[in-house]
């Protein structure tokens, strides 16, 4: 191992790890709420929440208590046996989503793999020999082989060829492009994000999701919604599709479901709930007692503190503040948001802003090369929100003036 410096703080780079991440030169040792603390004791305001994972912030006391109590009682038994906490969590999620059954696994990618398997088996059950799922340009669904294929293009995909077949890609937020697939007997499902997160905080037109849902009903396609990033109150409702008052056949959630404890879930309604049977799918760790207990604690806090409503109000306030601060700034192309998903698109690449923000003790993200993506924790205070708006705006103005 070797030591390199992050500003004034030493950090250890471990060569035992595969070189799959371009890690920033900082290591955090503790956190509280919207703040993280590094090895030297410096505090950082977290406007990313672990990539939309820590919706309740860091070291939330209710989650901490749940984990400590459950770890001292029972962590894992496997899905060979009933898991009452998993059953309780499944019932609560199905009630919130208006769906019927759920399969638990360990991540968003795995939840989306489950959704893809349901869609394909549904097609085979209908006599379709080579089922096809319609997916979107700009989509991100994960990094397993199937979810990577469903994800929008990128050079990294070429290294993993041959990729699975069975996907057709259409433009996002373009109902006519999707309608052009009507009558294609191989298409069995549509899979999309209600808001594209990795794609740059792309928010579809009002009514688009309703039109997609209506087309799926008309064509007898399953509608699978990837709510891995948008779910659990982040956009102002429990799930982002509820803004359009639709109900999918399949919905996936993960990320903030257990506030950092790995868990994913694939929920299904009447058309898809019974597709998977014993032996067709499984997970060793999925929905184990520890993860289920943490997720139940998260749901309780979200309900009691009405954090979905808070996300809607505070997100709208932050969006308006960014629009005021950056109005007329040359090089700012667009400012958009839905709840606590905020994106500021610049006219040129701005990946350097991540490092510059780090120097200011502020954690942000840049996606698609030129979109500053902000995913703050839902427990953010008004003062912390103001600090994020001021810090990010100043960084952008300074960067664009160079």
Tell me about this structure.
By secondary structure, the chain is of the alpha/beta class. Helices cover 33% and strands 20% of the residues. The strands form four sheets. A seven-stranded mixed sheet has the order 6-12-11-10-9-7-8, sandwiched between helices. A four-stranded mixed sheet has the order 3-4-5-15. A hairpin with a 3-residue loop joins β16 (365-367) and β17. Residues 1-10 have low confidence and may be disordered.
Overall spatial form: globular
Outline the biggest β-sheet.
Answer: 7 strands, mixed
Q: What is the CATH C-level name of the largest domain?
A: Alpha Beta
Helix content: 25-40%
CATH fold topology of the largest domain: Aspartate Aminotransferase, domain 2
Please state the average pLDDT score.
Answer: 96
Strand elements, count? 17
Percent in strands: 15-25%
Query: What is the helix tally?
Result: 11
Q: Please give the radius of gyration in angstroms.
A: 21 Å
Distance between the termini: 37 Å
Number of domains: 2
**What is the CATH homologous superfamily assignment of the largest domain?**
Type I PLP-dependent aspartate aminotransferase-like (Major domain)
Query: What low-confidence regions span 5 or more consecutive residues with pLDDT below 50?
Result: 1-10
Structural class category? alpha/beta
Mind telling me which CATH architecture of the largest domain this is?
3-Layer(aba) Sandwich
Succession of helices and strands: EEEEEHHHEHEHEHEHEEEHHEEHEEEH
Spatial arrangement of strands, main beta sheet: 6-12-11-10-9-7-8
């Amino acid at each position: 191992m070797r030591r390199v410096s992050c500003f004034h703080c030493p950090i250890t780079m471990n060569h035992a790890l595969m070189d799959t991440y371009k890690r920033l030169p900082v290591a955090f040792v503790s956190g509280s709420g919207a703040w993280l603390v590094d090895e030297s004791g410096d505090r950082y305001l977290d406007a990313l929440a672990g990539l939309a994972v820590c919706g309740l912030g860091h070291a939330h006391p209710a989650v901490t208590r749940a984990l400590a109590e459950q770890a001292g009682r029972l962590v894992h038994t496997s899905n060979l046996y009933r898991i009452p906490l998993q059953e309780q969590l499944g019932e609560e999620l199905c009630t919130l989503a208006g769906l019927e059954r759920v399969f638990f696994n360990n991540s968003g990618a795995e939840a989306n793999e489950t959704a893809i398997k349901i869609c394909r088996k549904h097609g085979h059950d209908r006599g379709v020999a080579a089922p096809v799922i319609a997916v979107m340009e700009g989509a991100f669904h994960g990094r397993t082989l199937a979810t990577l294929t469903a994800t929008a293009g990128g050079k990294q995909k070429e290294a993993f060829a041959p990729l699975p077949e069975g996907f057709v890609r259409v433009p996002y937020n373009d109902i006519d492009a999707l309608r052009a697939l009507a009558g294609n007997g191989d298409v069995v499902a549509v899979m999309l994000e209600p808001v594209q997160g990795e794609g740059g905080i792309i928010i579809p037109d009002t009514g688009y999701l309703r039109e997609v849902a209506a087309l799926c009903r008309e064509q007898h396609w399953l509608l699978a919604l990837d709510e891995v990033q948008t779910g659990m109150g982040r956009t102002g409702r429990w799930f982002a599709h509820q803004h359009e008052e639709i109900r999918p056949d399949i919905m996936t959630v993960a990320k903030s479901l257990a506030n950092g404890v790995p868990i994913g879930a694939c929920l299904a309604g009447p058309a898809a709930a019974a597709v998977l049977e014993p032996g067709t799918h499984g997970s060793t760790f999925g929905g184990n007692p520890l993860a289920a207990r943490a997720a139940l604690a998260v749901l309780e806090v979200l309900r009691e503190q009405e954090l979905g409503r808070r996300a809607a109000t505070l997100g709208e306030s932050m969006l308006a503040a960014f629009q005021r601060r950056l109005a007329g700034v040359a090089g700012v192309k667009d400012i958009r948001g839905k709840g606590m998903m905020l994106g500021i698109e610049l006219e040129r690449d701005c990946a350097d802003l991540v490092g510059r923000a780090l120097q200011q003790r502020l954690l942000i993200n840049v996606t698609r090369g030129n979109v500053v993506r902000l995913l703050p924790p839902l427990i953010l205070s008004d003062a912390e929100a103001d600090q994020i708006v001021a810090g990010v705006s100043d960084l952008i103005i300074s960067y664009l003036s160079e």
